[in-house]
Design brief:
By secondary structure, the chain is mainly alpha-helical. It has 13 helices and no strands.
Length: 228
């Protein structure tokens, strides 16, 4: 508890060195959450000299005890090769351990890995499973990912109506990606009657919410409308 107060700066001045001290005491007693925090502090070099070897050691110890946050961080480190030798098999192992505990971030990461196929062989059935699980948690980005699955036939039959349904749900939760995909649907008439003005409206909303690619679509549609 004391370690957490210093780590977060709740009721005391934030002090990573003191947080490290108290987390170390708990970690030495085998406390998984404390080991996870030590892994983070070593990884970031906060309150202690940065040391990826020790970070991994503590993360692994916590992960094997079932700490999902350690599992997710290990998945990321091994997938990206950040501070460690990239190891896709270990990345999958730890992401799956976290996903089995229902961790949203793990499902989202596995979706990306399976649908992109950059680190592992594409597996659309797995991609769809993880997109659907995450979308069912109400995550806005994942709702858009599920819409993408229905649009492109990723692990499921193409269904533009369902695709549009999930893009809209995503948009209503404030997802710039969902708004972009709504614009793309109206632009190309997928699941809805083609309507450039509505497409422009969605792309504009998407841009305002941070989607950079939307600006390109806005310019293209404005040109097309001017030509009409």
């Amino acid at each position: 508890i004391i370690a957490g107060l210093y780590f977060e700066g709740r009721g005391v001045d934030q002090d990573y060195a003191k947080a490290f001290k108290y987390y170390k005491l708990a970690a030495d007693q085998g406390h998984a959450a404390a080991q996870c925090h030590l892994g983070f502090l070593y990884k970031e070099g906060k309150g202690v000299d940065q040391d990826y070897t020790k970070a991994i050691r503590y993360y692994v110890s916590a992960a094997e005890k079932g700490d999902s946050f350690a599992q997710i961080d290990l998945g990321y480190l091994y997938a990206s090769g950040d501070g460690v030798h990239q190891n896709v098999n270990k990345a999958l192992k730890y992401y799956k351990m976290a996903a089995d505990q229902g961790e949203l971030a793990a499902h989202k990461s596995l979706f990306i890995m399976y649908v992109e196929g950059k680190l592992i062989k594409k597996n659309y059935k797995e991609a769809f499973y993880h997109a659907k699980f995450a979308a069912n948690q109400g995550d806005s980005e994942s709702l858009s990912n599920l819409g993408y699955c229905y649009e492109k036939g990723v692990g499921v039959e193409v269904d533009f109506k369902k695709s549009l349904k999930y893009y809209k749900m995503s948009s209503e939760k404030g997802s710039a990606l969902g708004m972009f995909n709504m614009g793309d649907a109206y632009k190309n008439g997928r699941g809805v009657k083609k309507d450039l003005k509505k497409a422009l409206s969605w792309f504009t909303k998407s841009e305002k919410n941070g989607e950079k690619e939307a600006s390109i679509e806005i310019k293209n549609i404005l040109k097309e409308l001017d030509n009409d």
